[in-house]
Amino acid sequence: MRKVRDYDAELRALNDKARALKAKKVQQLGELVTSTGADALDPDTLAGALLAATESANADEREAWRVKGAAFFQGRGRKASRRAGGNTQGGHETGAGETPR
Fold first, then answer.
1. Alpha-carbon distance 78 to 35, whole Å?
2. Among 22, 56, 94, 101, which is 20 to 30 Å from 45 by CA?
3. Pair 36, 78: CB distance under 8 Å
């Protein structure tokens, strides 16, 4: 004889998993906002920038954003420039006793 399936328990388990995934997504979005420095923006500005990005139909602009985002995640973003001493001018780093140009 077959075992009777408990559809209610399966549905509860799926709902719990969906809730956990949604919570993880929200947490990751918050971490993304913080790690990019966008948490320094006021909420209205951040919301406006995100709305402009989602409404943009310009494929070149979206591709440029994608490339910049991919570079950020590969460690060439804001944190990488800070780790390198913040030298973003492309010149050599100043040593002891040297004055910046």
1. 9
2. 22
3. yes
